[in-house]
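Subgroup meeting minutes
Present: P.N., E.W., G.H.
Scribe: E.W.

1. P.N. recapped why we're keeping a running log of single-chain structure predictions: easier to compare across weeks, and new members can see raw inputs and outputs side by side.
2. G.H. added today's entry (404 aa).
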Amino acid sequence: MNRIEENAHHLTARRVAHMIKDQFNLIHISEVMNELDVSRSTIDRWRKTKQLPSMKIGKEIYFDKNEVIRWYRQFGQVRQAAPILNANQTLTIGYTTVSTHMWSPHIIKEFGLLEEELRRVNPKNRIEIKWHKAKDGMELVKGMIAGTIHLATFGDYALSVSHTISRLLPDFRPILLAAGGKSAEGNGFGMVVPMSLTLKNISELATLPIATTFRTNAEYRLKKMLESYHMTELNIIHRSIEESMESLHQGKLSASIMWEPFLSLAHYQRVGKSIFDKELGLGFMAGVVADERWALAHEDLVVAYLKAHLLANRLMREQPNKAAKFFSLETGFPEEVIHRSISQIRWDAALYESDLTRLSYFDSTRQADIAYNIAYLRIAAQELRLPTLPVHPIAGAWQQDHYY
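Output recorded in log:
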């Protein structure tokens, strides 16, 4: 076929498409994007996951206008369950740097990973990103209850507490979207004592004052461990982890519950050694959380953030030196300490059944399972061309050669 014939062929195909479009009340995909103010990736996702009816004529995608209206009336009501975040409004991301396990948002912020994904979602709309740095996970939970924080990453204890609060506040429906950093039993948490102190069994702790932070994961783990050994009358003192580090340096403290990166710092500076690590619980995990109705109303933003989260995890795994250099500047800790701390943690966003079991450790009532939704993470992984995630949490042990 020569060029004239080829042009005539394309012209005929376009005319046929226009004739069919007019005759059957069809609209082009670009018109649907403009009418609903969404991206091409969102339309493609709706076609796959929510059966938005469409048809292909040649290489172009068209929709029956009446079917689009009917479909949008049905699913649009779900999307309106929470306030829509329009162009030129603010998306607030909550994070804390108190634990290495929660550092993924800091990587996303520093390297502009979320801004890049949002530009791909809808280049016409400008969403301002506000980063809320909190002192701990409970501050982030309060912000989510108030509606001032849209997405947040915090630890397993705060996640369990948020779930308990949701049973009292029906309008608050926190949902786990992905895992943050996680560590296995015996890693991530430890009881640090002076190098010169030797304890052979837990009962010997009865003679020591033990420092821990107030109303945190660390205090909860300590109390659970002591209760399991029928030791309820110990001398527990509340101090910040920074104060505990200083007291250990000065030889004024007998024991302190610590976590990464402070655990690695204590070992590096030889101010203490960790004992009874496995007795302190089931490891540690951070999680990415949003209100369920907000997530339903902002699919594009949730998927964009989770894509950035997956990319941040990849950077932590594959470029630990780059991450260590950045966090060393942020924390003032030696790069060697940060590198060691990062290497202690599994950077894997996939949810495992064992992860959810760990979360139930903090819920003494056992009234209900932690709410989660893997659908958004599955979409994010698919768009990054990662292996397909299962629709349910993965059973069995963590896969050592498979990360998200």
